[in-house]
Amino acid sequence: MRIYTDEIINAICLNMADRRGVKPTDVEVQLSWEEEYGYTAEVWVNGRSQYLLQANIMEALEQYFYSEYRLRVFRSDIMLGIDEEAEQFWAEARA
Fold first, then answer.
1. What's the total number of domains in the chain?
2. Sorted alphabetically, which InterPro entries does this protein's record hold (predicted)?
3. I need a surface site. Which of 8, 15, 28, 91 has the fewest CB within 10 A?
4. Helix (H, G, I), strand (E, B) or coil at 74
5. What's the pLDDT tens digit per position in 30-57?
């Protein structure tokens, strides 16, 4: 199963909202990929910025795949990528 940028952002928003005790709509996310750090996300909650590393993104995706699709996947089962032509990120769960 493959999801794209919007759903990856939703996964991170839901995860951060749960951790911070806010509504998912109070969370903003900007995804990026850097040679040095890999996949990262800058997250804003109530005006405060925080950077998430790939491990944090994978945690959010694990929870999202289970809560939204009832797929029990682990980080080792999730692959992240970028479709440069479509200019979007993707995450694929191999269950």
1. 1
2. Uncharacterised_YxcD
3. 28
4. coil
5. 999 988 989 999 999 988 999 999 999 9
**CA atoms lying within 13 Å on the CB side of residue 87:** 0
pTM equals 0.94
Task: Give φ, ψ of 21 to 5 degrees.
Answer: 70, 35
Q: Give me the torsion for CA of 57, 58, 61, 65, rounded to 10°.
A: 180
- In degrees rounded to 5, what are phi and psi of residue 4? -120, -175
The three-class DSSP label of residue 21 is coil
- pLDDT for 86 equals 85
What mean pLDDT comes out for the span 22-36? Answer: 95
Q: Which DSSP letter does residue 22 get? A: S
